[in-house]
Amino acid sequence: MIDLTLQRASTSAVPDSAAFRLWAEAALEKPHAEVVIRIVDREESAALNSTYRGKTGPTNVLSFPFVVPEGVPNDLLGDLVICAPVVEREAAEQGKPVEAHWAHMVVHGMLHLQGYDHIEEAEAEIMENREIAILRGLGMENPYREIRPE
């Protein structure tokens, strides 16, 4: 079960809270967790991307895992920041349904919060396979398959 807080700081149209909860719970690998998902605009995403990753411009999803001190019980998993305009643009560029791309970004971010990464090729393969399996369980296509816009 997930205790999800959804913050909407963007004027873009986004899926409803129930969809975010469904996607986050599908990727959750522990019995209970608290997560904040903040939906932002390009400016906030770019500022956070610069501050925390040293990269210029907005990005699709940023994850901020909460590091729990050893021996302290805590269900707080962390925060995800998703840039609505970037998700919409990427979905269009990749010829994917926008809702499927939203789901992918939530699943991707949730896996990051749980320690998955894609810096090394072997890690990336593990993470991508996990994403594909979770999204398949939600009735969605493989987000990494090549799709050409019509």
Describe the 3D structure.
The chain is an alpha/beta fold and 150 residues long. It has a single domain (2-137), classed as Metalloproteases ("zincins"), catalytic domain (Collagenase (Catalytic Domain)). Helices cover 45% and strands 19% of the residues. A 4-stranded mixed β-sheet has the order 1-2-4-3. Helix 1 (17-27) links the parallel strand 1 (2-8) and strand 2. Helix 1 crosses helix 4, helix 3 packs across helix 4 (98-113) and helix 4 (98-113) packs across helix 5. The radius of gyration is 15 Å and the shape is globular. The N and C termini lie far apart (39 Å). Single strand-specific metallo-endoribonuclease involved in late-stage 70S ribosome quality control and in maturation of the 3' terminus of the 16S rRNA.
The assigned structural class equals alpha/beta
Quickly give the CATH architecture. Answer: 3-Layer(aba) Sandwich
CATH topology name: Collagenase (Catalytic Domain)
Write out the CATH superfamily name: Metalloproteases ("zincins"), catalytic domain
The count of helical stretches stands at 5
What percent of residues are in strands? 15-25%
- What share of residues is helical? 40-55%
Please write the string of helix (H) and strand (E) elements.
EHEHEEHHH
Number of domains: 1
